């Protein structure tokens, strides 16, 4: 059976890829086997991967486990828009779990001009600045031009400092996207010394793997919240499920009906516990 990927290319349906994705989300073997049986019976020639995802998610969300929300993680990142500011804030929180003090949307003076920086971070031993390239569509890739532009900015910022300490010089420049990079962009970045971070790149330290390791899940992964309430929460700076757990009152402040609050908190707790349990 031939399926259509997000970028328009086609390939044979590989059930093992869907199986691995569901297992990473924490679905049980029984759940995975049942979903694959249903998906294989439902498949039609040329069906889009987005449609397969939606079907698998509908089946998985019938479970009482947090697997459905975890499986929706990639699509949840697309919900951190349309401005992309919530995506920048999410990245800052991700780097904070790795020991960095972070800043978002700061202006740094380079040798030739000023630069608006999406995310900056520093530790006593290392510092970086990052350009966040947020895309609303999964088939959109960040290309060579993006990386070349970022390299020029990196060169101009060589003598800039993120904080007052001597250790806060700009050691590294990241370009981070919620989708993918083109092959030419990756090849150029490797040659120029620019760090790329996307959903599946680098292979062993990708954005996906770092989010999973940190146990950070955006509120856009929650299945008990409608898009309306997710947007309202994002506008008030509530980005993570753990933000809801720390202050459940933010739900009612965002207009979430009182009757739904307990269900939202319960799902956030399940999702948080699934990766942060002792």
Structural overview:
The chain is an alpha/beta fold and 278 residues long. The chain folds into three domains: 2-71; 85-214, Trna Endonuclease, Chain: A, domain 1; 218-276, DNA polymerase, domain 1 (Orthogonal Bundle), CATH 1.10.150. The protein is built from 13 helices and nine strands. The chain starts with a strand and ends with a helix. The mean pLDDT is 90.
SSE map:
Blueprint: E1 2-4, E2 10-12, H1 15-24, H2 29-42, H3 49-60, H4 67-71, H5 73-78, H6 85-97, E3 101-109, E4 114-122, E5 127-133, E6 141-142, H7 144-156, E7 172-177, E8 180-181, H8 183-192, E9 195-197, H9 207-214, H10 227-235, H11 241-246, H12 249-253, H13 258-276
Parallel strand pairs: 5-7, 6-8, 7-9
Antiparallel strand pairs: 1-2, 3-4, 4-5
Short précis:
The chain is 47% helix and 16% strand.
Write down the secondary-structure element order. Answer: EEHHHHHHEEEEHEEHEHHHHH
Q: Which residue ranges are poorly predicted, with pLDDT under 50 across at least 5 consecutive positions?
A: none
Silhouette? globular
Counting helices, strands and paired strands, the structural category is: alpha/beta
Bin the strand percentage: 15-25%
Please tell me the CATH architecture of the largest domain by its name: 3-Layer(aba) Sandwich
Q: Could you please say which CATH topology of the largest domain applies here?
A: Trna Endonuclease, Chain: A, domain 1
For the record, the CATH class of the largest domain is: Alpha Beta
Helix percentage: 40-55%
SS elements, strand count: 9
Largest sheet: 5 strands, mixed
Alpha plus pi helix count: 13
Global Rg: 20 Å
Question: In order across it, which strands form the biggest sheet?
Answer: 3-4-5-7-9
